[in-house]
Structure formats: structure tokens, C-alpha cells
């Protein structure tokens, strides 16, 4: 019984470790890896890795290539288009609901986070620490919209897509050097939410996401 109770924990640890190393770029998009390499990377037993692989394949994070092994998801134009399309579908509905359901305190907190960063940029702060903080605030805002839906199925789909979005971001359009414009775009969304204008919030969000998509596609 103990072994049965332990296995789901090992699978979750393996998944968390793999995605951590993937986003840390310890393995790269398009790279081929062996099961042995994944054991070394995660520090978990081969059995947990073998149980992990079907989940990663189902989520599109790896694929098995005959005669070559396991390949990390490759960042190509098709992945970019599909990831952004899914993100847009989910976040449009989410931000509309968030506009009506979020508390004044929640909105005020998000606005303050963004305005503090925008103010820091205005006085010349271009430090790596600010960029790291801005990226976390960026992701946090979008996650807050999705969380407001209270839908586990959507949250899980969004979580997997977020991993792909972050890989795309690292490969194509990192926030580094663009903190000011990104914060300003976010503020347009948040100020519309503060006015409780779902129509304006959705329009600003669509413009923001489409702009990021076009940068990723290098349009």
C-alpha cells in the first residue's frame, strides 16, 4: 500500500522537476534527451520517468522520435500560432469575468504592482532584478484572470499552455528591455477593469496578446 501511495507523489515530483529544468533551459526546445538523462536531471528513479513520459507526450512537451529518442518540444511557427490562439480564447473570457468579479482591493493591488514598476522605469531603473520582478508580475496578472474562472479543467489547460508560452518567450520575445511598454499595456487592461468596463478590458488584452504574438512571429 505504501508503494501505491508513493507513486503519484513521485510522478508529480518528476513532472515538477522536468518543467523546472525545462524553463531554466537546462534542456532546450528541440533537444533530444534519453530517459537516463531525465533520471540525472530530476534525481528521480527510472520508473517515475517512464510514467512521466506519456503525460509529457499528451501535453505536447516532448515527443518520441523513432530511432532517435525523446525530443523536447520544438519552437516553430505552428506552436506559436496555436499557443497564442488558445491563450487568447481563454483569457478573453477570463478577463471579462474578472472585470465584474474581482474585488476593488485585488484590482488596486495589481495596479500598484504595475505602477511601481512603471515608476521605476521612469527614473531609469533598468536592472536585471527589476526585469525579473516585472516578468513575475506579468505572469501573475494573467494567472489571476484565469484563476477567477474557478474552472479546474481550464486552469490545467492554461497551465500547460503557459509552459509553452514561457518557452516561446525565452526563445522569441523576452521581456528584457521591454518592461516599460509591457507594463503600459497591462495598465491599459487594468485601468479598464478598474472602470468595470469589460469591453475595454477585453479590447486592451486582445491588443496586448496579439502584439506579443506578432513579436514572436517576427511580423
TrEMBL record:
Key words, A-Z: DNA-binding, Plasmid, Transcription, Transcription regulation
UniProt-listed InterPro entries: GntR_C (IPR011711), TF_FadR/GntR_C (IPR008920), Tscrpt_reg_HTH_GntR (IPR000524), WH-like_DNA-bd_sf (IPR036388), WH_DNA-bd_sf (IPR036390)
Molecular function GO labels: DNA binding; DNA-binding transcription factor activity
PROSITE patterns according to UniProt: HTH_GNTR
Keyword Ribonucleoprotein: no
Limits of the HTH gntR-type domain: 8-75
Protein name: GntR family transcriptional regulator
Organism from which the protein derives: Rhizobium jaguaris
